[in-house]
């Protein structure tokens, strides 16, 4: 039985009584400390086992590993491009399944989302948006590579909104101008009626506009070689295969070059963006020139 004075002392020090009763027996006290540490208990202030080892280092290592994850870094650097790639992967997988089950349904699905003359007459807003999120079978790998090489760098340098504006301007503008040219060609008897419901989906117009902005905003000694390297194959393709797709690519490149006039990048693509905490002073700035 514990004496009264020892109980008073235990209450005054706010420590469990069994630790004080075992203090006269070192072996028993050591056993109690081992049992408490294994049970992960802290008796509180006063004599007794010390604080348990913390698990913060493991948590810090896990957080550091997540920061070093390439996928996490890509999401932080270019969320718009990564989200677009996710949507394209889902729609491409759906199209692959449909093509395997029913090829006629595959063609109908693509035509219903194409920016052809029939779609622009019936549902213009829908096809202008939906056509950018559907790809023809087998074109997802090269489109994903182009998104990573063109849209993602433009988003990192300019920001999500300007990058989205350039992409949308190239995609919508080129689609409408190509449709207008086809309509005039049909009235003049130069274009056949098969283009009315032709399949016209994909992201090539918007991506070429992004490529034109990146080339035109590079440093002076790289600017003209990059612009020439972009336009030369597009012109050759239009001469070799004069169809509406090749014409749309040239128009999209011109729209991208026109966007540079109104979206002047303070930091060229080949220049280093100042490092430091995120904020307005560290973000690229656009200045309109007219």
Automatic annotation (TrEMBL):
Keywords from the UniProt entry: Membrane, Transmembrane, Transmembrane helix
Transmembrane helix among keywords: yes
Highest taxon of source: Bacteria
Record InterPro entries: Rhomboid_2 (IPR046862)
Protein name according to UniProt: Rhomboid family protein
Positions of region (Disordered): 42-64
Species annotation: Candidatus Protofrankia datiscae
Compositional bias of kind Pro residues: 44-54
Pfam families given in the database record: Rhomboid_2
TM helices/strands, residue ranges: 77-98, 163-186, 198-217, 246-263
């Amino acid at each position: 039985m514990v004496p009264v004075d020892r109980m008073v002392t235990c209450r005054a020090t706010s420590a469990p009584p069994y630790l004080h009763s075992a203090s006269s027996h070192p072996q028993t006290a050591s056993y109690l400390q081992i049992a408490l540490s294994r049970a992960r208990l802290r008796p509180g202030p006063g004599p007794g086992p010390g604080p348990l080892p913390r698990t913060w280092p493991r948590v810090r290592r896990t957080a550091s590993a997540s920061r070093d994850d390439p996928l996490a870094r890509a999401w932080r650097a270019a969320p718009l491009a990564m989200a677009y790639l996710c949507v394209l992967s889902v729609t491409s997988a759906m199209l692959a399944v449909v093509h395997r089950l029913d090829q006629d349904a595959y063609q109908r699905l693509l035509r219903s989302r194409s920016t052809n003359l029939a779609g622009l007459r019936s549902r213009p807003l829908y096809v202008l948006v939906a056509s950018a999120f559907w790809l023809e079978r087998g074109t997802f790998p090269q489109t994903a590579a182009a998104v990573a090489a063109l849209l993602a760098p433009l988003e990192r340098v300019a920001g999500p909104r300007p990058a989205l504006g350039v992409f949308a301007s190239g995609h919508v503008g080129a689609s409408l101008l190509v449709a207008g040219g086809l309509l005039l060609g049909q009235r003049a008897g130069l274009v056949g009626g098969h283009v009315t419901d032709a399949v016209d989906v994909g992201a090539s117009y918007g991506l070429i506009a992004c490529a034109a902005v990146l080339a035109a905003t590079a440093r002076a000694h790289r600017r003209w070689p990059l612009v020439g390297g972009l336009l030369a194959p597009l012109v050759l393709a239009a001469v070799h295969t004069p169809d509406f797709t090749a014409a749309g690519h040239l128009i999209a490149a011109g729209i991208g070059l026109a966007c540079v006039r109104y979206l002047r990048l303070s930091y060229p693509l080949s220049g280093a963006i100042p490092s430091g905490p995120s904020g307005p002073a560290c973000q690229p700035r656009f200045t309109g020139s007219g």
